[in-house]
């Protein structure tokens, strides 16, 4: 195994809801972690968790063997890379864990390589709970030669690391999966509301579909109506879970990839429109399964 980035300090840029606990898990695993965030609260929490918080991103990467980023979007990621690539030691391993467009992930990796570094994309699933527990699934996009080293770096934060292919493949896997998730949640929610109108109880539909061809995660784990799956967010007033704003963001990235690649994805494109409207009209802070209520309300209005 290469030890280049797995012995020296790690710089962590973006210490928010996800990055904060991820950096804390690196510290808990015995790594020396420097960090930076533009937000004071994030910096204070990270400092309390043992991160050596610096005054700028460029300062944080000095002397680091690896740089992990966990930022809100691709534009911010590319801005941070502009600042830190010249400041890092040659050959530093850059791993971006943010969810960004496939094209932005490839641009970021190309910039890092052009500056003499090595780069991977590694978006995650598992949410804040997974970040805190160190059980995130990382979808890794990088050359074969980097897999072992990147996996060892991510290990203290991970339940699983899946190498999905070359640069950008991690982001591709993430948005393809979430396009299925958004579309399947809408389909399941429409079926519950149609069932209501036809006099079918939620439990009866669940009992049949959960063991029939309609079976999917949106039904059996994140069931959008209260009752059939007691642990689903619907049973706690649709508190997330996975927030509508994040689903709208991920479907927006999927739509961009659909358009850039010329894919005929009518259902994925419509799911993006429905989730964008859901987020804009009050669903941003609710679990994405609350779209069932929007569908019910619109169905009632259409019936008047
Ligand atoms: P967040 O807003 O809590 O954290 C992002 C942090 O980046 C903030 O603390 C912000 O101050 C900081 N930041 C912004 N610009 C910066 C800059 N120029 N330099 C340094 N720091 C900067 O968001 P989050 O929930 O931690 O999500 C981070 C990424 O993870 C996003 O791309 C998101 O889509 C993805 N993600 C989130 C979840 C989730 O459940 N929250 C799950 C999977 C993936």
TrEMBL record:
<feature type="domain" description="6-phosphogluconate dehydrogenase NADP-binding">
    <location>
        <begin position="10"/>
        <end position="165"/>
    </location>
</feature>
<comment type="pathway">
    <text>Amino-acid degradation; L-valine degradation.</text>
</comment>
<keyword id="KW-0560">Oxidoreductase</keyword>
<dbReference type="InterPro" id="IPR036291">
    <property type="entry name" value="NAD(P)-bd_dom_sf"/>
</dbReference>
<dbReference type="InterPro" id="IPR029154">
    <property type="entry name" value="HIBADH-like_NADP-bd"/>
</dbReference>
<dbReference type="InterPro" id="IPR006115">
    <property type="entry name" value="6PGDH_NADP-bd"/>
</dbReference>
<dbReference type="InterPro" id="IPR015815">
    <property type="entry name" value="HIBADH-related"/>
</dbReference>
<dbReference type="InterPro" id="IPR013328">
    <property type="entry name" value="6PGD_dom2"/>
</dbReference>
<dbReference type="InterPro" id="IPR002204">
    <property type="entry name" value="3-OH-isobutyrate_DH-rel_CS"/>
</dbReference>
<dbReference type="InterPro" id="IPR008927">
    <property type="entry name" value="6-PGluconate_DH-like_C_sf"/>
</dbReference>
<feature type="domain" description="3-hydroxyisobutyrate dehydrogenase-like NAD-binding">
    <location>
        <begin position="168"/>
        <end position="294"/>
    </location>
</feature>
<dbReference type="InterPro" id="IPR011548">
    <property type="entry name" value="HIBADH"/>
</dbReference>
<dbReference type="GO" id="GO:0008442">
    <property type="term" value="F:3-hydroxyisobutyrate dehydrogenase activity"/>
</dbReference>
<keyword id="KW-0101">Branched-chain amino acid catabolism</keyword>
<comment type="similarity">
    <text>Belongs to the HIBADH-related family.</text>
</comment>
<protein>
    <recommendedName>
        <fullName>3-hydroxyisobutyrate dehydrogenase</fullName>
        <ecNumber>1.1.1.31</ecNumber>
    </recommendedName>
</protein>
<dbReference type="Pfam" id="PF14833">
    <property type="entry name" value="NAD_binding_11"/>
</dbReference>
<keyword id="KW-0520">NAD</keyword>
<dbReference type="Pfam" id="PF03446">
    <property type="entry name" value="NAD_binding_2"/>
</dbReference>
């Amino acid at each position: 195994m290469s030890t280049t980035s797995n012995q020296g300090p790690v710089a962590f840029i973006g210490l928010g809801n996800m990055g904060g606990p991820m950096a804390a898990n690196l510290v808990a695993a015995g790594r020396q972690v420097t960090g930076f965030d533009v937000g004071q609260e994030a910096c204070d929490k990270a400092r309390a968790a043992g991160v050596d918080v610096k005054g700028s991103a460029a300062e944080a990467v000095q002397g680091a063997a690896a740089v992990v980023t966990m930022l809100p979007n691709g534009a911010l990621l590319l801005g941070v890379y502009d600042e830190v690539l010249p400041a890092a030691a040659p050959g530093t391993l850059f791993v971006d864990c943010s969810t960004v467009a496939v094209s932005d992930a490839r641009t970021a990796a190309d910039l890092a390589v052009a500056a003499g570094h090595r780069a991977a994309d590694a978006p995650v699933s598992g949410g804040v709970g997974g970040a805190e527990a160190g059980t995130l699934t990382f979808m890794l996009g990088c050359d074969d030669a980097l897999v072992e080293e990147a996996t060892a770096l991510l290990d203290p934060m991970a339940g699983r690391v899946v190498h999905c292919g070359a640069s950008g493949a991690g982001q591709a896997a993430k948005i393809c999966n979430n396009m299925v998730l958004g579309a399947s949640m809408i389909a399941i929610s429409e079926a519950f509301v149609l069932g209501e109108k036809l006099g079918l109880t939620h439990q009866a539909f669940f009992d049949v579909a959960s063991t029939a061809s309609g079976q999917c995660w949106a039904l059996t784990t994140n069931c959008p109506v209260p009752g059939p799956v007691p642990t689903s967010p619907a049973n706690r007033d649709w508190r997330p879970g996975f927030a509508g704003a994040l689903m709208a963001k991920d479907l927006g990235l999927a739509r961009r990839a659909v358009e850039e690649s010329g894919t005929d994805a009518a259902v994925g494109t419509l799911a993006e429109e429905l989730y964008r409207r859901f987020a804009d009209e009050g669903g941003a802070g609710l679990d994405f399964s609350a779209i069932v209520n929007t569908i019910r309300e619109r169905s009632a209005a259409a019936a008047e």
